[in-house]
Design goal:
With 408 residues, this protein is α+β, with helices and mostly antiparallel strands. It has ten helices and 23 strands. The strands form seven sheets. It has a five-stranded mixed β-sheet. Strands 4-5-6-12 form a four-stranded antiparallel β-sheet, with no helix packed on it. Strands 22-15-16-23 form a four-stranded mixed β-sheet.
Length: 408
């Protein structure tokens, strides 16, 4: 009786936890399974605890089997198959997340434009960060697998990294610190078609588009989700999109992030497989109206699902502009969260920008660098450039669209 109890109890516990691990953190599993965010977050917070319990139960099952527990036919035919299935449920998500999605928060390499032209097409869109005249460009293709790019040198003397979610087509520059403590960020999952990071110093999830830990969310906030206090969020850095050729014109001495293949032949082969799987899904995400991973909780039909928008959130207010509207009506003067802003497209550098307007009057002329007849303007640091409309609306459901003038 005891051998049977050990066998069946161990089998049940190891399989259930293994399936949940595979479902909630397997990532690609969300292409066929609809996973609730709270389940993903639960496993992120307790990944190693759950894995230890599940694998411990697997050992208990083997002990029960060796003692004669379970059906007799399993002793010869079933145990190897069960062992393979159980180990796959644990090993696949761990390797996929911790090896396949390994990030470059601290060791990304940046190259001169002359070398980067061999890897990035002139018309390719790049995400740009600039500080004190130092500029870095990050193409979507190079960022797709590592998701995070930064190094110990920082940008213009500041600790700044680029964070990226291919499912949202969204890159955001952040200072990876909260209240003076540097975060150890790791990419673990996505939900709502947006990346979820984990701060390994606390084990807490961070929704990419928000930039603060789940445990620090203000439950009383109305409108946009926000932290209990501003200092509990990572500092966002002004992030904007432009073509690579536009970057070369604007910042001829700029640096370019390149995710070159690993010198390790095994990692190189594994990365090739990972990127192939990623690419097939991301191509569909850009081409098909329906989200490739349908874990959305809010759909807004005011715009086609995959419309690219430039979204800004200030306080409890949020506004998204489409590129065609900006091209037809820019420069656009509007008020967001009580702050005047100006939105404009620069044809020379092929870039849309949003700046704070502190001039006290509407802005009719502004260039790529924020220069106006009334002085130089500062870029809005909360701009989410060129992301998918359905993702913006998921996380800012109260958003306005193509606002001109004061809030409606």
């Amino acid at each position: 009786m005891i051998p049977d109890l050990l066998f069946y109890a161990g089998l049940a516990v190891s399989f259930v936890i293994g399936f949940l691990y595979f479902r909630d953190l397997g990532d690609v599993t969300q292409m066929v399974l609809k996973v609730k965010r709270e389940n993903t977050v639960r496993f992120m917070r307790n990944e190693y605890k759950f894995a230890a319990i599940g694998l411990g139960a697997f050992v208990v099952m083997l002990i029960g089997s060796f003692m004669g527990g379970g059906p007799g036919w399993l002793q010869i035919l079933g145990i190897p198959l069960i062992a393979f299935l159980v180990l796959f449920l644990y090993v696949f998500p761990w390797i996929w997340v911790h090896v396949g999605l390994r990030n470059q928060q601290n060791d990304a390499r940046f190259y001169p434009i002359s070398e980067a032209t061999d890897y990035i097409h002139p018309s390719a869109s790049v995400l740009v960060l600039e500080n004190h005249g130092k500029a870095r460009a990050h193409s979507d293709g190079q960022l797709m697998r590592p998701h995070l790019a930064g190094n110990d040198e920082g940008l213009g003397g500041e600790d700044v990294i680029m964070t990226y979610c291919a499912m949202a087509n969204l890159g955001i520059g952040y200072s990876p610190a909260i209240e003076g403590q540097r975060l150890k960020l790791e990419v673990l999952a996505q939900h709502g078609n947006n990346l979820i990071l984990r701060d390994n110093t606390t084990g807490e999830p961070i929704q990419h588009i928000y930039g603060f830990r789940d445990t620090d969310k203000d439950p009383k906030a109305e409108g946009a989700a926000c932290p209990l206090r501003p200092s509990l969020a990572m500092k966002p850095w002004p992030t904007f999109r432009m073509t690579f050729r536009g970057f070369q014109k604007a910042y001829p001495d700029g640096e370019v992030f390149l995710n070159k293949p690993s010198s390790n032949p095994f990692l190189k082969a594994f990365d090739m497989v990972t990127e192939t799987v990623f690419s097939s899904g991301i191509v569909r995400q850009h081409q098909e109206a329906a989200p490739v991973m349908d874990n959305m909780t809010h759909l807004d039909g005011r715009l086609p699902t995959k419309t690219y928008v430039w979204g800004v959130n200030i306080g409890n207010d949020a506004v998204a502009w489409t590129d065609d509207f900006i091209g037809e009506h820019g420069p656009i003067n509007a008020t967001v969260g009580g702050r005047d802003v100006v939105v404009a497209y620069d044809p020379k550098y092929e870039s849309i920008g949003v700046w704070y307007n502190e001039t006290g009057a509407p802005v009719a002329e502004i260039d790529f660098f924020g220069d106006t007849p009334a002085g130089k303007l500062e870029r809005v640091e909360t701009l989410k450039p060129g992301m998918f409309w359905h993702v913006w609306a998921e996380f800012f459901p109260h958003t306005d669209i193509n606002r001109v003038g004061a809030p409606s």
